[in-house]
Amino acid sequence: MQAPGITRHRRPFLAPIWLTFAAVLVAAAIALAIYRSATTTTVVVVRHAEKQLGTIDDPPLSPEGEARAERLARLLGDGNFGGIGAILVTDTRRSQQTAAPLAKRLRLQPEIVAAADVNEMLAHIRKHRGSRVLVVGHSNTVPDIVGRLAGEQVPAIADQEYDNLYVVSSPTFGPASVLRLTF
Questions:
Q1: Mean pLDDT value across residues 108-114
Q2: Which residue, among 44, 40, 41, 64, has the nearest Cα to 52 in the 3D structure?
Q3: Residues 25, 74 share a domain
């Protein structure tokens, strides 16, 4: 004698439970993938250090500027900040000399971008999504770079103001935040 027909077939009343379990498992896998892909790009934006006053078009740093460049290297190069992954500088001598002590300390080669092209600078920043980037700009480009990264207005920088340091944190989801420091 055979067992009743009900026992020979799968029990259809368990199908909704298994389908619900499978849907929850798939949703959890998607949520985990989205969570892991979410990153924060941290961009440190500074103006070049003090330059020598004179009549040449591309002046080097003054002794005060060299001291400020060393302070920047100590501030960002000791590993406590979390490690700068890229350095972006403009095509001027003073910008490159400002970043040189940090680049040497971190063994990084700065990427050179045209001084007047903010769009190109932003494109280079986007290439380093999820990492920490130092940008050395000028009094007329730093507020524009910070403003466009953060989506907010940044005050102009005076001619004799060299000590501003902006930290812009741009998460994948949500608004960016700006921290203004002096060094």
A1: 96
A2: 64
A3: no
